[in-house]
Amino acid sequence: MKPSQAQTTYLESRATELRESTLKTHRYRLNHFVRFCQTKDIEEVSELTRPLVNEYASWRRDDGDLSKVTMKGQTDTLRVFLRFLGRIGAVEDDLHEAVPTISPSPEEATNERIVEPETAHDILATLDRYHYASVKHVWFLLSWRTSARISSLRALDVADYDSDDQCLTFRERDGTKLKNGVNGERPVALSNETCAILDDFVEQNRVETTDQHGRKPLLSSAHGRVHRNTMRRWSYTITCPSFRGEKCDDSDCELPTNTKSGKCDNSVSPHAIRRGSITHFLREDLPRKVVSDRANVSEDVLEKHYDRRSDREKMEQRRGYLDNL
Prior knowledge:
Blueprint: H1 3-13, H2 20-39, H3 50-64, H4 68-87, H5 106-109, H6 117-130, H7 135-146, H8 150-154, E1 161-162, E2 167-170, E3 186-189, H9 192-205, E4 220-221, E5 224-225, H10 228-238, H11 270-283, H12 288-295, H13 299-306, H14 311-322
Helix pairs in contact: 1-2, 2-4, 6-7, 7-9, 7-11
């Protein structure tokens, strides 16, 4: 069985149990393994050996300059893939055991980068002044005010926005799955200011379009529902200091002159916006349960991956509840 055929067979075997986004991740990770096999002139997966499997880990880390956290995802997927191939007799039964186990430290496993409230305020002020009620403005506004994932924001339809009740409702539907499926469905309350901007966007600037499911996406473009990669590009552009009129200290910064593929070490991903938003709400003393429900994340995961408050910040917040005891 050729490596590419083995990849296809594996993905087809898991199509009913994995979400589409997870399947895409597995496909992407295994693409690199197929490429590695090509560099080694491996025509059949039966030719794979333990030394080759072990060599792949080093090759992939160096090829992509990957962190331990990213490498853990790469090797975990490869291990499951080889275990599957072993079950169907395409490779040795225990070949998956040759995949190195990568265990990032707690510091490595947790990404510390976040958008701070002051930065978010400056970004919103810039958007309000120069890009008022644009799709980019609305996207960042909702990212910060709702703490939602980009998959959730992308899934929104015009009908999910209720201007009278001042809320958005996230729903699981064909074509726009939520991270946690139906468990991710929830209404989220909005402020007067947020609704005013949303109203102006819907009435004046939203591109009228219908997707292949007959639905009207809230965040739309001339090409239809805004793509995740477009949202990521917006994030990198918007969070570069130069966007908000500050001097960027990254000497190799390619933004904002190259907004399609430009890079900047000071820019962050959409997840850093979500992490900063959640931390901001916790610092503002919103109950953990409220923040957990609003962001659709368990309190345990919230504590481990999203709460970037220092121990002293937490202590001072607890002190406020103890003063009157």
